[in-house]
Design goal:
Keywords: Carbohydrate metabolism, Hydrolase, Magnesium, Metal-binding. Pfam families: YdjC. By secondary structure, the chain is of the alpha/beta class. It has one domain: Glycoside hydrolase/deacetylase (TIM Barrel). The protein contains twelve helices and nine strands. It has helices at about 20-30, 45-55, 90-95, 100-120, 140-150, 165-170, 175-185, 190-195, 215-220, 240-245, 250-260, 265-270; strands at about 5-15, 35-40, 60-65, 125-130, 155-160, 200, 205, 230-235, 275. Strands 1, 2, 3, 4, 5, 6, 7, 8 and 9 form a nine-stranded parallel beta sheet that branches. Helix 4 (about 100-120) crosses helix 5. The longest helix is centred in the middle third of the chain and has 19 residues, at about 100-120. The radius of gyration is 17 Å and the shape is globular.
């Protein structure tokens, strides 16, 4: 397999709800995913994590670091004084103002990795962030510090959610969102590599989650101008009451799942000479 012709396809939000998790397992069983990112701070994680343990042998399974949805695993008196994580906008404000309580954040990252490992019986293959929090100034350094303390350099890969300007322009898919994340994550890749961590090269998958749009057409744009270790995020799943109570992204999850299970996905990959692969196995 030529190194520059692979693409890793990662489903985010495993553990968010039973329906979301069940949908991701369907795509995983069908061989349409090469990575899964798990939320571990909610009540669905232990049970759904055991299902993933039994069925995730052919994909990278990682931690979807969460600092903006639900409750922390233990008290965070400064960052989550009411016992609930702040919204993303507040996390960004604190990060840019350099007012994040980094000791609390490091401790919470340790707790989330511990909870992942307690179920999966091993360290995560990768770490990324819900709403891309892993790239924020301060949070990224806390993450690198925790992973280094656990001696995981070279053993986990990290999601660089930014990409080159020419690649973003070539895709013409949610460019404003892609540019915003690129700006917030400026320097992430450089710092991660300097500290000994593997990162993807190429990133796509930004969506406006509009159920009136053809997800397949959007996905086709994600494959334009791929990097040599290209990563595409997706959000498949089934809608259930838990999901409706937690997240505004609902109908499009079922649309994404339908696309992933359809013949259109392998046809698109073959047409572009791309092959699904695990980033943990890419050198």
């Amino acid at each position: 397999m030529a190194k520059e012709r692979i693409v890793a396809l990662c489903a985010d939000d495993y553990g968010l709800s039973y329906g979301v998790s069940a949908g991701i397992l369907e795509a995983l069983d069908a061989g349409r995913l090469t990575a899964v990112s798990a939320l571990v701070n909610g009540p669905r994680w232990p049970a759904m994590g055991r299902n993933l343990l039994r069925r995730g042998g052919n994909a990278d399974v990682g931690l979807h670091l969460n600092l903006t949805l639900g409750r922390p695993l233990s008290a965070m008196r400064k960052f989550a004084p009411d016992g609930v994580f702040p919204p993303l906008s507040e996390a960004i404000r604190l990060a840019l103002a350099r007012k994040l309580p980094l000791d609390e954040i490091r401790a919470e990252i340790h707790r989330q990795i511990d909870r992942f490992e307690a179920v999966m019986e091993r360290a995560p293959d990768h770490v990324d962030g819900h709403q891309h929090v892993q790239v924020l100034p301060g949070i990224r350094t806390a993450l690198f510090d925790v992973l280094a303390a656990r001696k995981l350099e070279g053993r986990v890969w990290l999601r660089d959610a930014g990409d080159g300007l020419y690649r973003i322009a070539a895709r013409r898919a949610q460019a404003r969102k892609a540019l915003a994340v690129r700006s917030l994550g400026a320097g992430f890749r450089r710092e991660a590599l300097r500290r000994g961590f593997k990162v993807n090269d190429g990133f796509a998958g930004f969506s406006d989650f509009d159920p009136g749009r053809d997800y397949g057409e959007a996905f086709q744009s994600y494959l334009r101008a791929p990097g040599r270790a290209h990563l595409v995020m997706c959000h498949p799943g089934h809608v259930d009451e838990d999901l409706k109570a937690l997240d505004p992204v609902t109908i499009t999850r079922e649309q994404e799942l339908a696309f992933l299970l359809s013949p259109r996905l392998p046809e698109m990959l073959e047409k572009r000479g791309l092959q699904l692969a695990r980033l943990s196995q890419f050198e």
